[in-house]
């Protein structure tokens, strides 16, 4: 699908379907829209009245117009109240319109949308993102595509002439989100630690990043006993992935993004039981997927910021080599961990990744992880938990999430709860009591960051959606990529 900018006035645009964005309580047609209504023999006014259309956010109605016009169909899209218009409202409204256009078998779609915040660049980018993210279909694992109907071929943004940079930005970001969706959606027999390492290598080759893959022996030399403890039951080799984007000049900031990369989480000897969702645990590399998706986007956007993309990738499996409940592991910072639950494996892999990143002397580290079911209980499926002792990084990420429309909510780092992780024999246990389980997980991670401002995002909920939601179709969402990109770009300003 090609997104184009059109300098044609609304009344002169020719194509299959025209999508018009309207504000709630302001559906009377004025100016150009009144003229269009007249040209179409009053059909728009009639449609609004008949369907009692009030332009509530993301509501859509459409109609066929008489033959002989430049367009065949019109979609009216609700934008909600003007004072409540967010950038993400534009993205979602564009997605809703694109879905209707696709269903109506349109090949060409024109968008006539008002500006968000008087900002044509941001608005054009949001429309381009919403449209492409909503219409992406994953047919890699079907022997034959089910949807054989016509595909949307071109999308024209009316009134956005000159915004090429915004469209390019959107396309680069969307390519990263789609990579993340593909990595998460692929089953664990298709995406393994080896695949993740190969994906990192491909990003490096395609977009000029540096890449280093540490094999098991090198991780042993670095003392990554926590990561390797998790990896030891798998027949697949663990891969410690380190991709680096370096800008041409002096970087304004140096950052790290770390993603939990469990390509499958069986639970280990504390095996996940019936009803635990074990069959969905291919998603447990959603953090790594977001990290690689962000790397793909950043590699193309080329900001003045150095970014390290890191994942300690492995599977959590069962075999005669498996770590046992009660085993003690030593992480690369020398801290010892009593593994009282082998299903709390993500934090063990992240521990060594955090120590590695902390030693790079960076300005900030953000990790993303499908870390706990407790976070889903606390915040539901749509919202990631943000855990950080650092108010600056917290507000940077909150701002980035506002721009991306990906929901995050800051949670407390209640130090007292660390008592739940006290071990009689080692420095700490990997699992505390059930209450506050996402908080103790974050407090565990904190033990492995010494000097660098750090934040952790628990994305166990939003990594996946069972039903269509905004510009996400059911399945992998690619959650995190857009917030990370926005965060990195923001720190370079
Ligand atoms: N990968 C899971 C967390 C998870 C749960 C992700 C649901 C996505 C959806 C993680 O490794 C895990 O098993 N966590 C345990 C921790 C417990 C043993 C302390 C959990 O949340 O139950
Ligand atoms: Mn687990
Ligand atoms: Zn896990």
Explain what you see.
The two termini are 32 Å apart. The mean pLDDT is 98. Helix content is 35%, strand content 21%. Strand 5, helix 4 (120-135) and strand 6 (154-158) form a beta-alpha-beta unit. The chain has helices spanning 31-39, 43-50, 87-103, 120-135, 164-185, 193-207, 216-221, 225-231, 286-301, 346-358, 373-379, 391-404, 437-446, 481-491, and strands at residues 2-6, 15-22, 60-64, 71-78, 108-112, 154-158, 210-214, 239-245, 253-259, 261-265, 305-316, 328-330, 336-338, 364-369, 384-387, 408-410, 428-429, 454-458, 464-465, 475-476. The radius of gyration is 24 Å and the shape is elongated. With 493 residues, it is an alpha/beta fold. Zinc ion binds next to strand 10. The site of zinc ion (ZN) has 5 residues, from strand 10. It is an enzyme of class 3 (hydrolase). Presumably involved in the processing and regular turnover of intracellular proteins. Catalyzes the removal of unsubstituted N-terminal amino acids from various peptides.
CATH topology of the largest domain: Aminopeptidase
Largest sheet: 9 strands, mixed
Topology, number of strands: 20
CATH-scheme architecture of the largest domain? 3-Layer(aba) Sandwich
Q: Helix segment count?
A: 14
- What name goes with the CATH superfamily of the largest domain? Zn peptidases
The first-level CATH class name of the largest domain: Alpha Beta
Could you tell me the strand content as a percent range? 15-25%
Total of domains: 2
Q: What is bound: which ligands?
A: ligand BES, manganese (II) ion, zinc ion
**What are the low-pLDDT stretches, counting only 5+ consecutive residues below 50?**
none
What is the residue-averaged pLDDT? Answer: 98
Radius of gyration, taken over Cα atoms and rounded to an integer in Å: 24 Å
Protein name: Probable cytosol aminopeptidase
GO molecular function: manganese ion binding; metalloaminopeptidase activity
Binding site for Mn(2+) 2: 260, 265, 284, 345
Main location: cytoplasm
């Amino acid at each position: 699908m090609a997104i184009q900018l059109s300098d044609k006035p609304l009344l002169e645009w020719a194509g299959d379907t025209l999508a018009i964005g309207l504000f709630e309580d302001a559906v009377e047609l004025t100016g150009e829209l009144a003229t269009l209504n007249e040209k179409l023999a009053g059909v728009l006014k009639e449609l609004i009245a008949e369907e009692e259309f009030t332009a509530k956010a993301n509501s859509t109605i459409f109609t066929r117009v008489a033959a002989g016009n430049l367009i065949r169909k019109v979609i009216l899209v609700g934008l909600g109240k003007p004072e409540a218009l967010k950038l993400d409202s534009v993205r979602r409204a564009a997605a809703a319109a694109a879905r209707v256009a696709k269903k109506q078998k349109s090949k060409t779609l024109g968008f006539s949308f008002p500006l968000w915040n008087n900002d044509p660049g941001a608005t054009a980018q949001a429309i381009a993102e919403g449209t492409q993210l909503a219409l992406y279909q994953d047919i890699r694992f079907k022997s034959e595509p089910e949807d054989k109907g016509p595909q949307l071929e071109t999308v024209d943004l009316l009134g956005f002439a000159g915004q090429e940079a915004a469209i390019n930005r959107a396309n680069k970001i969307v390519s990263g989100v789609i990579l993340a969706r593909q990595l998460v959606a692929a089953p664990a027999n298709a995406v393994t630690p080896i695949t993740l390492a190969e994906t990192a290598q491909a990003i490096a080759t395609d977009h000029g990043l540096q890449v280093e893959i540490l094999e098991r022996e090198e991780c042993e030399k670095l003392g990554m006993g926590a990561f390797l403890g998790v990896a030891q039951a798998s027949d697949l080799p663990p891969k410690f992935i380190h991709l680096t984007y370096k800008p041409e000049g002096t970087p304004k900031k140096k950052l790290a993004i770390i993603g939990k990369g469990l390509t499958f989480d069986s639970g280990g000897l504390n095996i996940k039981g019936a009803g635990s969702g074990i069959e969905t645990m291919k998603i447990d590399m959603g953090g790594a997927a977001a990290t690689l998706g962000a790397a793909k986007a950043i590699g193309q956007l080329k900001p003045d910021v150095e970014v390290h993309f890191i994942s300690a990738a492995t599977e959590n499996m069962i075999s005669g080599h498996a770590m046992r409940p009660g085993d003690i592991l030593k992480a690369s910072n020398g801290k010892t961990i009593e593994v009282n639950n082998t299903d709390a494996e993500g934090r063990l892999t992240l521990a060594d990744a955090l120590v590695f990143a902390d030693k790079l002397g960076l300005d900030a580290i953000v990790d993303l992880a499908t870390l706990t079911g407790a976070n889903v209980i606390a915040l539901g499926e749509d919202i990631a938990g943000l855990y950080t002792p650092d108010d600056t990084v917290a507000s940077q990420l909150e701002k980035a999430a506002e721009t991306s429309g990906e929901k995050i909510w800051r949670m407390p780092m209640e130090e007292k709860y660390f008592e739940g992780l006290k071990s009689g024999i080692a420095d700490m246990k990997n699992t505390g009591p059930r209450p506050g389980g996402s908080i103790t997980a974050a407090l565990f991670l904190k033990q492995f960051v010494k000097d660098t401002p750090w934040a952790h995002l628990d994305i166990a909920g939003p990594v996946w959606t069972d039903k269509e939601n905004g510009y996400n179709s059911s399945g992998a969402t690619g959650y995190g990529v857009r917030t990370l990109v926005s965060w990195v770009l923001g720190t370079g300003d």
